[in-house]
Design a protein that fits this description.
The chain is an alpha+beta fold and about 150 residues long. It has a 5-stranded antiparallel β-sheet. A hairpin with a 4-residue loop joins strand 4 and strand 5.
């Protein structure tokens, strides 16, 4: 038994360190570094979403939840967006694709206090279904999300 424990410990010590996580594990991931402080960027992003006629379906705030239990973590929010006209089109093309809505915009706080935005291109999200109507909708949404990102940066 001692030999087995010693062998296990030796293997753990000899094992290479774990590789860093892949920050963009899916195809079509975009990551945008901003020079805007986290809280200000979230506010600008929400304004850009509304200005581009998309709806904010939900807003998850991990740093807010952590604070509620007495833990401080860097800013970490997911802003979920969609529009009913796209929901109707999506479901007409594929009920299975309904799990992809709403689209998620992930805002994280960098060590210097600025925000990073990460999201998947809608064309990649909906392209996985290989349905022509979803492909067209994904391309339309790519343009809308790009405009939202540009407006939030300005």
């Amino acid at each position: 038994m001692r030999i087995m424990i010693a062998a296990a410990v030796a293997l753990m010590l000899a094992a290479p360190p774990a590789a860093a996580e892949n920050p963009t594990p899916y195809s079509g991931m975009k990551s945008v570094e901003t020079k805007t402080p986290f809280a200000a960027y979230v506010k600008k992003l929400k304004g850009a979403i509304k200005a581009n006629r998309m709806g904010i379906v939900g807003h998850a705030c991990a740093n807010c939840s952590a604070k509620a239990i007495g833990v401080t973590i860097p800013g970490n929010n997911v802003v979920m967006i969609f529009h009913p006209k796209f929901a109707v089109r999506m479901l007409k093309a594929s009920v299975a694709a309904g799990i992809e809505a709403p689209l998620r915009l992930y805002v994280t706080e960098n060590k210097d206090g600025t925000a990073r935005l990460t999201y998947r291109l809608p064309s990649h999200v909906f392209g996985a279904y290989q349905v022509p109507d979803l492909d067209a909708m994904g391309r339309e949404l790519d343009a809308i999300v790009a405009k939202i990102v540009a407006d939030a940066a300005g």
